[in-house]
Design goal:
Immunoglobulin-like; 5-stranded antiparallel β-sheet
């Protein structure tokens, strides 16, 4: 008797679980919905991952940048799409932003993130945004890369002044970069955690 009741209860629980998994209800109506994708913070880049963060001012930034605010977003699918939006910059000034290897509190983001650590300092081995602030000191910029950034939650986006104004390039797509971005010129950092 005890075994039969236990078996019956197990069967009822299993049937309820199957109904819940298939989205069917016991009244005959269909309530199936697509599950929403979830990602673990320790996952590497997967289809449909997006990480965003607000920029925080960095110590040692050049004078005149106490009002910089904004956000950075990386959308990872089969590659990487990056968006940044900033205000409080110097009007008409050229800037460059990069994905960095570490969080902001670790040497202000540390070195640039590279897909191949032994490879080039230029895209497509790195992710860069090049842009010029408008007359109000605001800027929106996008960039893309065919590769997806691994472990984006461990990375940061750092904004620098770009005195080399894109090394003579007038391509503002984020695929060229000036070399004059020293540690002291870092302005703001966004942790992608």
């Amino acid at each position: 008797m005890y075994l039969r009741n236990k078996t019956s209860r197990i069967g009822t629980v299993m049937a309820a679980g199957i109904l819940a998994l298939t989205g069917c209800s016991t009244d005959g109506s269909d309530t199936a919905e697509s599950p929403s994708p979830e990602s673990s913070p320790s996952e590497t880049a997967t289809t449909g991952t997006a990480v965003s963060a607000s920029f925080e001012l960095l110590d040692g930034r050049p004078e005149g940048y106490d009002d910089v605010k904004g956000t950075a977003t990386l959308k990872l699918d089969s590659g990487t799409e990056g968006e940044i939006s900033l205000s409080g910059l110097k009007p008409g000034t050229a800037y460059v932003a990069h994905v960095h290897q570490q969080a902001c509190d670790m040497d202000q983001g540390g070195p640039h993130f590279k897909f191949d650590p032994a490879g080039s300092d230029m895209p497509p081995n790195e992710i860069h945004w090049n842009f010029v602030a408008d007359a109000e000191g605001s800027a929106d910029a996008t960039t893309s890369n065919e590769q997806a950034v691994a472990d984006p939650q461990l990375r940061a986006v750092v904004v620098h002044e770009n005195p080399d104004t894109m090394s003579g390039s007038d391509d503002m797509s984020g695929q060229a970069m000036g070399a004059g971005h020293t540690h002291q010129q870092k302005i703001a950092c966004a942790d992608l955690a």
